């Protein structure tokens, strides 16, 4: 009995719902009967009355008008390739030829998704191509249910007046493909230099990918991988819908499509504007950018931007032959606010030869030694000091190799070299950072902790490093990838005494009624202790230390004591960097080639730093230096000499160490997690201890004129010398670097190859030759050792030089 009652109740509810739906449908149909459909001319002559305009920080210099110089060419459906028509249907509206103007199943899916996301009026719309024609042509952009209902009704009525192919033609003549490009004919010409009728399958798949988010998916932007993914989705749906066969599908997936150069007509500061437009698209949507009449006031100093754009272009064009470097990027930010003052993404936005529209300022690249300050400041946070002693000695760091294999670099070994192949013994962290020494930097990273250093970088705004994959000792030499914009802004944290501001490009956004939608609000966050930030600044602004490393009269010999600077060069010479700052600006420059080919084999000091200095002199005219605060560097409570500048408890006689009991690597004295705490009871428990100690023992032995040790740890025979690190084959441009050791006192070592000579009279004996002036071929390399008795010993080696 109860079951029957429940069934009757269910039937009553069902009949009630049906009756309600009938009433709603009757009302909608009655309303629909009162609406009229405009003639086709209304679609073909559509104009957008109010478009978004982007200004510089003054609010007066127009950088970009979304609809300035609109490019649209209306063509017939017969003049459109069947591939672009099919690709568009496949990705936008698979049921286009079967639905009556609206897709009921798509609407239901969209409504359910929007309800689930708590956004009934926004989010997914389930719009068909017919609906999009109506929306773009007749209706406002307001988010109301009544507007959506009107759109459905008009779509159904439009389908009753026009053929499907006519509607598709209207759509393809109207939709935006990015910038001021509207319609498929202009898109085909702009991106591929051909007519819409000649578009091939892969080209059509790319173009069909764009309308969903033209700025984000732009082939000239920073999301090319996303564009590739969407193109593959388009091709898959074309195949699934029978528009192409399996062979065509596979061929299109493999086809290498080339895009024509980007057009910058009516566009100032192109890289920055596209950076801002992408943000607007993500935040407000493509429709709002096209139709809502937004006024966007940015942070850009356009007068300075224009001058720096000219500097970059002139420098690259004048020096690309000398440096094999065809591109550069510049960013200037305000450390006190995070505001982007200048953004030059390449030597020229519209330069087709180098894919100039690609914004290198927001692309990940390897930073070289510009990453080192993150490791040092992390060490300082843990309790190390700028005067902490690190031994700058050739050291094997890989526990997969033996401690005595100090010159073995190939995998799995890791024994880096300093950029100048010189090793100084005990140095302070202060000197090591200023001189950009690699081995002390690797040791500092180990002491600071790789993951902790990545965490510090992340706190300072670096978003591209993986705390697991990038947590290795080569990180401090620039093995990870970072963005110039984020690096420049992160250095601003040092300039700002440890306070971070997120990089921002917008001061204010106004709607068409002048109401503020968004306004800059300063939101600083302390991410470093002020003392530690000031310690880095004190080191990087020390002119004496810089001149001692890079020499007087170079681009880095800056008289202003309130300018800090750091350079970086990757090991393969693919990326060269210079980043510096004063209290009011942070300036970063990257140089290299978009195709990742190497520049000339010289450090950034000579390749990109001169441009940085030229730009610096211009920037400080508008953003002058103020005096840096100085750190206390109070070591009064530190009872470990190794942390305050002393490395030995031994006894010296002249320049010779005669008691070496107190000379050890820093791991002998400190626990890496608590450097100012007790001395480790068992330092050997640290996996690196024996490796660092071995290098120190060899150095101490050299100071005592003891016999150097050979590869297996035994003394060399007293009547012979050994050459280590020499290869059998080198490429043109390589450095030939090796070491000489002997079981007797050496007065001097001489080396010669085809007239190229070097000599060394200090232990350890590190020799280096250049192959720049050689040609391909086999050469005899002579190594001559002069003893203290003025006798000579010679060995020869065959070296092959290849191109």
Description:
The chain is an alpha+beta fold and 803 residues long. Among the domains are: 1-34; 74-257, Biosynthetic peptidoglycan transglycosylase-like (Penicillin binding protein transpeptidase fold); 721-802, Sandwich (Immunoglobulin-like), CATH 2.60.40. Helix content is 36%, strand content 17%. The strands form 8 sheets. A 5-stranded mixed beta sheet has the order 2-1-6-12-13, covered by helices on one side. Strands 8-7-17-16-15 form a 5-stranded antiparallel beta sheet, sandwiched between helices. It is elongated, with a radius of gyration of 34 Å. The termini are far apart. The model is unreliable at 1-8, 119-124, 649-660 and 704-714 (pLDDT under 50).
Helical proportion, percent range: 25-40%
On the 0-100 scale, what is the average pLDDT? 84
Biggest sheet architecture? 5 strands, mixed
Compute the number of helices: 24
Q: Cα distance, first to last residue?
A: 95 Å
The SS-based structural class is alpha+beta
Poorly predicted spans: 1-8, 119-124, 649-660, 704-714
The CATH homologous superfamily of the domain at 74-257 corresponds to: Biosynthetic peptidoglycan transglycosylase-like
Principal-axis shape equals elongated
Strand content: 15-25%
Biggest sheet strand line-up? 2-1-6-12-13
CATH architecture level-2 label of the domain at 74-257: Orthogonal Bundle
CATH topology of the domain at 74-257: Penicillin binding protein transpeptidase fold
Cα-based radius of gyration, to the nearest Å? 34 Å
What CATH first level of the domain at 74-257 would be assigned?
Mainly Alpha
Count all strands and give the number. Answer: 27
């Amino acid at each position: 009995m109860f079951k029957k009652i429940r069934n009757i109740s269910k039937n009553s509810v069902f009949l009630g719902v049906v009756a309600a739906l009938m009433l709603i449908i009757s009302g909608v149909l009655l309303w629909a009967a009162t609406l009229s459909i405009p003639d086709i001319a209304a679609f073909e002559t559509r104009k957008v009355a109010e478009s978004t305009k982007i200004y510089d920080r003054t609010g007066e210099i127009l950088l970009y008008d979304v609809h300035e110089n609109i490019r649209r060419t209306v063509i017939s459906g017969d003049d459109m390739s069947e591939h672009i028509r099919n690709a568009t249907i496949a990705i936008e509206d698979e049921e286009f030829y079967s639905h009556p103007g609206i897709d009921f199943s798509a609407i239901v899916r969209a409504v359910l998704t929007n309800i689930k996301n708590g956004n009934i009026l926004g989010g997914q719309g389930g719009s068909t191509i017919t609906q999009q024609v109506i929306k773009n042509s007749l209706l406002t952009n307001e988010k109301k249910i009544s507007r959506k209902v009107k759109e459905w009704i008009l779509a159904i009525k439009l389908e009753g007046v026009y053929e499907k192919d006519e509607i598709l033609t209207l759509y393809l003549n109207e939709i935006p493909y990015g910038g001021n490009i509207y319609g498929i004919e202009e898109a085909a010409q702009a991106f591929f230099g051909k007519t819409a009728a000649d578009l091939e399958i892969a080209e059509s798949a790319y173009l069909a990918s764009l309308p969903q988010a033209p700025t984000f998916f732009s082939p000239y932007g920073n999301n090319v991988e996303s564009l590739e993914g969407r193109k593959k989705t388009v091709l898959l749906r074309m195949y699934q819908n029978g528009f192409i066969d399996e062979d065509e599908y596979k061929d299109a997936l493999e086809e290498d499509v080339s895009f024509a150069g980007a057009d910058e007509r009516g566009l100032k500061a192109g890289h920055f504007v596209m950076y801002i437009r992408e943000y607007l698209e993500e935040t407000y949507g493509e429709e709002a950018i096209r139709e809502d009449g937004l006024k966007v006031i940015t942070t850009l100093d356009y007068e300075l931007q224009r001058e720096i754009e000219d500097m970059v272009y002139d420098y690259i064009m004048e020096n690309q032959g000398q440096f094999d470097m065809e591109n550069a990027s510049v960013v200037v930010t305000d450390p006190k606010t995070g505001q982007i003052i200048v953004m030059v993404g390449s030597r020229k936005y519209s330069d087709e030869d180098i894919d100039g529209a690609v914004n290198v300022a927001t692309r990940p690249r390897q930073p070289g030694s510009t990453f080192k300050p993150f490791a040092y400041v992390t060490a300082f946070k843990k309790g190390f000091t700028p005067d902490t002693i690190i031994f700058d000695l050739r050291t094997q760091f890989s526990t997969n190799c033996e401690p005595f294999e100090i010159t073995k670099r190939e995998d799995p070994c890791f024994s880096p070299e300093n950029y100048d192949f010189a090793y100084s013994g005990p140095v302070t962290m202060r000197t090591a950072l200023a001189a950009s020494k690699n081995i002390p930097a690797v040791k500092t990273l180990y002491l600071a902790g790789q993951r902790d250093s990545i965490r510090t970088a992340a706190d300072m705004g670096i978003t591209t490093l993986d705390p697991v994959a990038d947590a290795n000792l080569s990180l401090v030499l620039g093995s990870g990838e970072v963005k110039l914009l984020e690096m420049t802004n992160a250095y601003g944290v040092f300039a700002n005494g440890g306070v971070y501001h997120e990089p921002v490009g917008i001061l204010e956004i106004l709607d068409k009624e002048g109401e503020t939608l968004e306004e800059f609000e300063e939101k600083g966050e302390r991410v470093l202790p002020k003392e530690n930030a000031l310690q880095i600044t004190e080191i990087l602004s020390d002119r004496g230390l810089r001149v001692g490393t890079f020499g007087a009269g170079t681009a880095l010999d800056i008289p202003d004591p309130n300018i800090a600077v750091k350079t970086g060069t990757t090991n393969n010479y693919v990326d060269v960097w210079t980043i510096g700052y004063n209290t009011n600006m942070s300036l970063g420059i990257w140089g290299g080639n978009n195709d990742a080919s190497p520049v000339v084999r010289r450090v950034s000091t000579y390749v990109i730093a001169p441009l940085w200095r030229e730009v610096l002199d211009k920037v400080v005219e508008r953003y002058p230096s103020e005096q840096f605060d100085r750190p206390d560097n109070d070591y009064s409570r530190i009872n470990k000499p190794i942390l305050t500048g002393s490395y030995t408890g031994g006894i010296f006689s002249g320049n010779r160490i005669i008691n070496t009991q107190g000379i050890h690597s820093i791991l002998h004295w400190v626990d890496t997690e608590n450097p100012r705490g007790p001395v480790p009871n068992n330092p050997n428990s640290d996996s690196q201890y024996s490796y660092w100690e071995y290098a120190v023992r060899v150095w101490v032995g050299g100071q005592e004129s003891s016999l150097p040790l050979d590869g297996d740890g035994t003394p060399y025979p007293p009547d012979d010398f050994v050459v280590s690190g020499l290869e059998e084959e080198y490429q043109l441009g390589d450095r030939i670097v090796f070491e000489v050791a002997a079981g007797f006192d050496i007065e001097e070592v001489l080396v010669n190859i085809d007239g190229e000579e070097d000599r060394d009279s200090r232990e350890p004996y590190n020799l280096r030759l250049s192959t720049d002036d050689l040609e391909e071929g086999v050469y005899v390399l002579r190594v001559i050792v002069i003893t203290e008795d003025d006798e000579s010993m010679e060995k020869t080696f065959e070296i092959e030089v290849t191109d």
